[in-house]
Amino acid sequence: MASQEVGNAEPGTASAGGPPARQAEPEVVNSVYQRNDELQNHQKEKLQALGAVQILNGATVLVLGIFLASLQNIFHPFSQFFFISYTAYPLWGPIFFIVSGSLSVAAGRKPTRTLVQNAFGMCIASSAVALVGFVFLSVNLAVNKHSFKNCESSQSQDLCVYVGIFSNGLMSLMLILTLLELFISTSVSVMWCIESSCNSIEVISFPSNSV
């Protein structure tokens, strides 16, 4: 009788006290895949949003730099307030930011290996450029404090003071945007690094689990 009961037991079902059925394993693997897909989609949306902010930030710094250069040409006798224009940071700095943001958006939409590597490299370069720009702007603001003393000996003292205050306002705004770009570029670099490492772990681990 015992042999007949054992023989009539359906294959794939667990006996009392036995191990769980193996048919549940594909469902577990599918649920893990689904969770990973949801996390990756959320990560891509974040990267695209941060890339768009990078583009907007770079465009704003570029417009402010062009406006600052035009002011330097108009108020040429007070060129001591526009030290940052001689470094050309308001031109080449925003170009790095815009290119880095564009690559982040493109790689978030279509994460190929080439785009991800280029976006990761440009984010690191943008972080370095933002750090250099922060140093230049800080030096310019420090120099402007001493330049205000020269306004006392200037013939148009009031105009000199107004130009210095306006220049400091533009520098301060560019400094805030540069700090924002530094934080965004660093965050995007870390996110790209985490995503690439997670993808490599997923490729290695899932085939072994399926086997």
UniProtKB/TrEMBL annotation:
Natural source organism: Ursus maritimus
Name this protein carries in UniProt: Membrane-spanning 4-domains subfamily A member 3
Membrane topology: Multi-pass membrane protein
Entry's localization field: Membrane
One GO CC term, this protein: plasma membrane
Parts of the chain that traverse the membrane: 49-69, 89-107, 119-141, 161-184
Pfam family, one: CD20
Family affiliation: Belongs to the MS4A family.
Stretch list, region Disordered: 1-26
Keywords from the UniProt entry: Membrane, Transmembrane, Transmembrane helix
